[in-house]
Each structure stands twice: as C-alpha cells, then as structure tokens.
C-alpha cells in the first residue's frame, strides 16, 4: 500500500551539488545542525562506487515472514514489485529489512528493472541475491551482505511510500539519500538545500587546507584553521575570483 503522505520536493540543483561532495563532509554539517543519527549502520556498497549516489528516497517496508502471511490477500510479492515500479526516476529505493540478512530483499531482475526505469540507486539494511551480477551493473547498490535465499524466507512486503527505518535511521519519502565508499546517510529534506550550500564551502576550504598540509604545513593552526589560516584562505579566494 502506498502512502498519501506528500513528500518534500528537493530541487535538482541541490541533488547535483551534493553529488560533488561526500558523506564525510555532509555528516559533519548535519551534526552541527543537530542531526547526529544519519549513518545507516552496517550498510555497505556492492563494489566501489565511481561517484556518490544521491537522490530522494522512495521506501519499501518488510515485516518478518510468517506462513499465514503468504496467502494471496496479503499481496507481499505484488507490493514488492509495486515498489520497484512506483519508485520515481532519479530516486533511491530504500528498503527496511530490519537488519535481517537471512534472506534477500531482491535480486538482479528487480534491480535491473529499477535501473532501466532510471532509479538513482538501491539501499537495504538486509541481504541481496545475485550480488556478483548486481555489483557490475550501472546502478549503485548498498546492502548489509550477500544472501542467496529468496525474500519470502524471512520477509513479507507490507507497504511502500511511507516512513521507515533503515540501518537504525529514520527515512521519510523525499529525504535525500547519499552513499559513497564510506557508507549511506540520510539528509532530511527540510535541510537539504542548506546542507548542499554549506558542503560547497566546506569542501573548498578543506581542499585548500589539504594542499597546505601536503606542502608541509603542521596540523596546528590549519586543522582546524586558525585566524591566520582563514585569512590566507580568504586571500586565496579573492585571487581565484580575479583570475576567473
């Protein structure tokens, strides 16, 4: 069952901006904004992502499997397939599997469908089948572990398009999901634009400080930057502005 709860639209420019940042940068910003619990625990990429996965969340919730829940009126298989068909283009499908890896959340055929429909990625705090094939597909996938058993061994799909938990983090449809080699984080939609704006500034400053460290500067006074380093950074920005 899909929710009637409206999701918050995040501007495409915000999504594009975040693609040039990292989960490390964004986690620091979210912490300062009062959001410390944003990292999905034990959720890792299949393979090495070529670039950060960023997109609004669409959600699917599983509950534990039970024999009487396999009856047609529960529609578990249909609900699971509905979620893959309902995920909007450039959204990330996020699945609540209760951190249970005793069975898969899906396999290569469903992931293929999500990919050809234009999905930005898939995240699950459970297991996944066909992990070797999926790791070579052109879509980012983040899960806890490979798991060959079919989903109905452990999972019953209950609903999609509603708030869920994934890896110990609340996910509301429309929240921005960001994943890279360090893991997957959730950016609340209400602060996504502010986070993106601050990430641009933080990444630029960090790049400046990194160059100073590589050139032999000490950590003291540079990391974190003191008044003198910040003054040097402002002078660098002014130089860059004139050259452009």
Describe the model:
The chain is α/β, with parallel strands linked by helices. A hairpin with a 2-residue loop joins strand 9 (164-166) and strand 10. Helix 1 (12-19) runs parallel beside helix 6. It starts with 11 loop residues before the first helix and ends with a helix. It is elongated. Strands 1, 2, 3, 4, 6, 8, 11 and 12 form an eight-stranded mixed beta sheet that branches. It has a two-stranded parallel ribbon with strand order 5-7. The chain has two domains: 12-189, 3-Layer(bba) Sandwich (Glucose Oxidase, domain 1); 195-243, no CATH class. The chain has seven helices and twelve strands.
The CATH class label of the largest domain is Alpha Beta
The secondary-structure element order is HHEEHEHEEHEEEEEEEHH
**Helical run tally:** 7
**Outline:** elongated
CATH superfamily of the largest domain: Ribonuclease E inhibitor RraA/RraA-like
Unreliable stretches: none
Helix percent band: 25-40%
Biggest β-sheet, characterized? 8 strands, mixed
> Please, what is the average pLDDT?
94
Cα-to-Cα separation, first versus last residue: 53 Å
Q: Give the structural class.
A: alpha/beta
By CATH, the topology of the largest domain is: Glucose Oxidase, domain 1
Taken as a percent bin, the fraction of beta residues is 15-25%
How many domain units?
2
Computed CA radius of gyration, to the nearest angstrom:
20 Å
CATH architecture annotation name of the largest domain: 3-Layer(bba) Sandwich
Please tally the β strands and state the result.
Answer: 12
């Amino acid at each position: 069952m899909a929710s009637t709860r409206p999701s918050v639209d995040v501007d495409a420019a915000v999504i594009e901006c975040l693609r040039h940042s990292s989960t490390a940068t964004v986690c620091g910003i979210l912490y300062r904004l009062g959001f410390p619990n944003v990292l999905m625990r034990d959720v890792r990429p299949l393979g090495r992502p070529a670039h950060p996965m960023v997109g609004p969340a669409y959600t699917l919730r599983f509950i534990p499997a039970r024999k009487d829940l396999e009856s047609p009126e529960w529609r578990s298989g249909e609900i699971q397939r509905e979620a893959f068909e309902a995920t909007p283009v450039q959204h990330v499908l996020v699945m609540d599997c209760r951190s249970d890896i005793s069975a898969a959340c899906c396999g290569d055929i469903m992931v293929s469908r999500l990919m050809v429909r234009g999905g930005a990625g898939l995240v699950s705090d459970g297991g996944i089948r066909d992990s070797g094939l999926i790791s070579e597909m052109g879509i980012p996938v983040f899960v806890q572990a490979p798991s060959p058993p079919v989903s109905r061994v452990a999972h019953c799909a209950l609903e999609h398009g509603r708030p869920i938990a994934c890896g110990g983090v609340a996910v509301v449809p429309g929240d921005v999901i960001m994943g890279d080699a360090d893991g997957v984080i959730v950016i609340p939609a209400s602060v996504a634009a502010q986070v993106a704006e601050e990430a641009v500034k933080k990444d630029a400053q960090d790049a400046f400080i990194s160059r100073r460290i590589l050139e032999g500067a000490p950590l003291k006074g540079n990391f974190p930057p003191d008044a003198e380093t910040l003054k040097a950074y402002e002078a660098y920005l002014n130089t860059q502005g004139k050259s452009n």
